[in-house]
Amino acid sequence: MNIKLILNRYKYFLIGFTICIIIYVFNKNLGLSIFNSTKLNILQMLSILPPVMILLGLLDVWVPRQYFIKYMGCDSGFVGILLSFLIAFFAAGPMYAAFPFTAVLIKKGVKFSNIIIFLNAWCVTKFSTLLFEVGALGYEFTLVRLIIDIPGVIVMGYAVDYLVNVKNDTLSR
């Protein structure tokens, strides 16, 4: 493999790593703190991503594409929106775990607006997050936030879908 291609592929990692080494040279405590934090983040990702990948592989094999198209595809309407919210609501894990799932949704023919709704709902309507929020901030705050966020997530999903389709139509002319 070409060294130039490898350097180009990993340039941001290499730049970040170089900056961390420079910081370590000038401030050993801060440098060690950066490397320890990075190590903990990598270990956390390695504990979450393998089970997610296994579940996604099973989902990809067990659930036929036509079901996704029927219930979350272009003609899914309210059902597609509801399923996008429900899948995100019961999801577990940090946001980076949603991206492999999103790749499966794209592969299965899910409507783009439903994918955007799923990603946004993952951030703002997860059950585990809501439980924490109710305990920390109260149910009134959580309820008001959901009343604002749920329509906002739907509007954002359709707005992004529209903008992407307009751009694609413009590029294909």
UniProtKB/TrEMBL annotation:
Keywords: Cell membrane, Membrane, Transmembrane, Transmembrane helix. It is a multi-pass membrane protein. The chain crosses the membrane at residues 12-30, 42-63, 78-105, 117-137, 143-164. It is found in: Cell membrane. Its main location: membrane. InterPro entries: DUF318. It comes from the Bacteria. It holds the Pfam family ArsP_1. Belongs to the UPF0718 family. This is Permease. It comes from Romboutsia sedimentorum.
